[in-house]
Amino acid sequence: MATILGGITTSHIPAIGRAIDEGIEQTPYWKPFFDAYPPVREWLSDKKPDVAIIFYNDHGLEFFIDRKPTFAIGVAEEYFNSDEGWGIKPIPPIHGESEMAWHICNELVDQEFDITICQEMKVDHGLTVPMQLMWPGNQYDHIKVIPVCINVEQHPMPSPKRCYDLGKAIGDAVRSYDKDLNVVVFGTGGMSHQLDGQRAGFINKEFDLYCMDKIVNEPQALTRLSIRDLVEQAGSQGPELIMWLGMRGALNPRLTVKHSNYHVPISNTGAGLLLLE
Q1: Cβ atoms of 75 and 104 closer than 8 Å
Q2: C-alpha 28, offset from chain centre
Q3: Contact, 69 vs 110, CB < 8 A?
Q4: Among 43, 124, 180, 214, which residue's Cβ finds the most Cβ atoms within 10 Å?
Q5: Tens digit of each residue's pLDDT (9 = 90 or more) over 86-115
Q6: What range(s) does the Extradiol ring-cleavage dioxygenase class III enzyme subunit B domain occupy (predicted)?
């Protein structure tokens, strides 16, 4: 049977991809952020996962406001990134794990989750930035990816509890898969941030640290929040926390924190990093 090795939370801010592209990771602005990642990279190098399931949100590249699925899962053999206007050089395609992805989709439908199944799918910085952070130099050719895209751009959005339950169902589906594959699960997205309106630049460090504690020790406390709560406490883009809850739901209830870091601000965003085994 397949095994889930652990989970990783990480920011997916598009400016990170630009910093990598320009080679400025060790400049004073970026160094405190990038210096947090080597322990996670070492863990990945040691554990050698075969598959990464990545909870992320699309920012209008594949799903614009005219068609916005609540939950979408990729079952493709490859995923390509398109330039979103940052002028970044093209990166290699990301390999998909089609067979396991179809198994997960079948299990989710059996569990009464309504999902959009994507046999072709472009991916944006929500997925590619975490890949670049974990495998510098785009050295991710050895790992296969299953994208799980959750709507946090257009209301109505799925509740934190619904996303946690989705993660639980995905975790059960992985553990029922009849091939010996090792899986790591990512929950991506910035923490508190607001990019528009009167509160542009809003960051709530106290709430971010509360969420980093609860995601480990009491995720059910976060499932009692509403999307409105997240907007009020963490800014208009704060609902990205629901990707973290998807990741946490897929893991076993008991786990060990192998690494943790919080840095603010990066591109007007709170950036939290957790490695959970």
Answers
A1: no
A2: 26
A3: no
A4: 124
A5: 788 889 999 999 999 999 999 999 999 999
A6: 8-269
What are the angstrom distances between the C-alpha of 114 and each of 27, 73, 120, 158? 45, 11, 18, 12
Strands 51-56 and 144-150: parallel
Whose structure tokens read 């060790």?
26
By annotation, the residues acting in catalysis are 125, 193
Sorted by where each starts, the structural domains of the chain and their CATH numbers stand as: 3-276 (3.40.830.10)
**Amino acid type, 108:** L
| Cis previous bond, 38, omega within 30 | no
**Cβ count near 58 (within 10 Å):** 24
Residue 85 confidence (pLDDT): 75
CA separation, residue 260 to residues 65, 133, 176 (Å): 35, 15, 30
Q: Is the peptide bond before 265 cis (omega within 30 degrees of 0)?
A: yes
Helix, strand, coil abundance in the chain, percent, nearest 5: 40, 20, 40
Q: Round the CA-based radius of gyration of the chain to a whole number and report it.
A: 17
C-beta of residue 194 within 8 angstroms of C-beta of residue 201: yes
Phi first, then psi: what are they for 207, rounded to 5°? Answer: -70, -40
Mean pLDDT over the full length of the chain: 96
Question: What number of other Cβ atoms are within 10 A of residue 263's Cβ?
Answer: 17
Element housing 263 (H / E) = strand 257-263
